[in-house]
Amino acid sequence: MKKEYNFSKGERGKFYKQDIQLNLPVYLEPDVKKYFPDSNTVNEALRCLLPLLGKKKVKPSTKLI
Length: 65
Prior knowledge:
2 helices
């Protein structure tokens, strides 16, 4: 970051929302996209894998600071 930026009037956490849910895009490689052309097919395939995880709940990997 450049030294000449002036953040003296900046406001920390101005856009922070505690309970926000992010829907980040996922980019598929072309060979995978042939089998999963849209989000519905991707979600269906991932739901089929959920039983393999057992009853372990996975926490979201996105963490807002």
